[in-house]
Amino acid sequence: MRAPIGDFDNATPAPDCLDVLVGPVADAVRHWRGDVPAEQIVYVDTEPDWADTAVFLEHYGKDLLDRSANCVVVAGKRGGGTTLAACVVLSATRVDVNGVVRRRIGARKASFAPMDTATGETGMEYGGITPIGLPAGWPVLVDAAVADLPYVLVGSGRRRGKLLVPGKALAGLPGAEVVEGLGVG
After folding, report:
1. How many Cα atoms occupy the beta-carbon half-sphere of 92 within 13 Å?
2. pLDDT per residue over 66-102, tens digit each?
């Protein structure tokens, strides 16, 4: 199959390659109930040494900069409790953690979750966290610019490989909320 975006040698519908996905991502694809068919989620094999944005774009297509999104885990604190949330923004922007995110999750203070918390809670590798397969009950804030894309490149749960996902599929994830202005700058 040909990848819907980018210049990738190997593209496979995610349901056909569950064995290369980490457990939580494979389970989410296996039990997919979104409005977009799971077969429209495409796994592309990528070189983990080329994961940094500039090198990645050099190898897989400079046009991907405007079609790539980062998924970051944010920890919001209020009183004695902590709420973990995922934020999905275009790679060329940054998450408005102390403005939009803090207000959306009802936190007094918000910051990026420590790496060991993000990886431990998601079961995914740092640098490959994806909004597909996150723990049940997590808020998933998706920037409107991401939700509007026909296809967006996101992590696969590992540093090796990426997922190409219709933006509307990300907007339809459990716990997802499309938010204007989540990504800034």
Report:
1. 11
2. 999 999 999 999 999 999 999 999 999 999 999 999 9
Is residue 98 domain-resident?
yes
Range of the domain at 159: 11-184
22-34 tens-digit pLDDT: 999 999 999 999 8
d(CA 183, CA 178): 11
> Is residue 152 a contact partner of residue 164, using CB atoms and an 8 Å limit?
yes
Residue 6, in any domain of the structure? no
Residue 3 counted as domain residue:
no
Q: Tokens 């209020």 map to which residue? A: 78
- What is 60-129 written as a DSSP string? H-GGGGGGBEEEEEEEEEETTEEEEEEEEEETTSEE-IIIIIHHHTT-SEEEEPPHHHHHHHHTS-TT--
pLDDT digits (tens, 9 = 90+) for 140-153: 999 999 999 999 99
Please state whether the predicted TM-score (pTM) of the whole model is above 0.70: yes
CATH number of the domain where residue 91 is located: 3.90.960.10
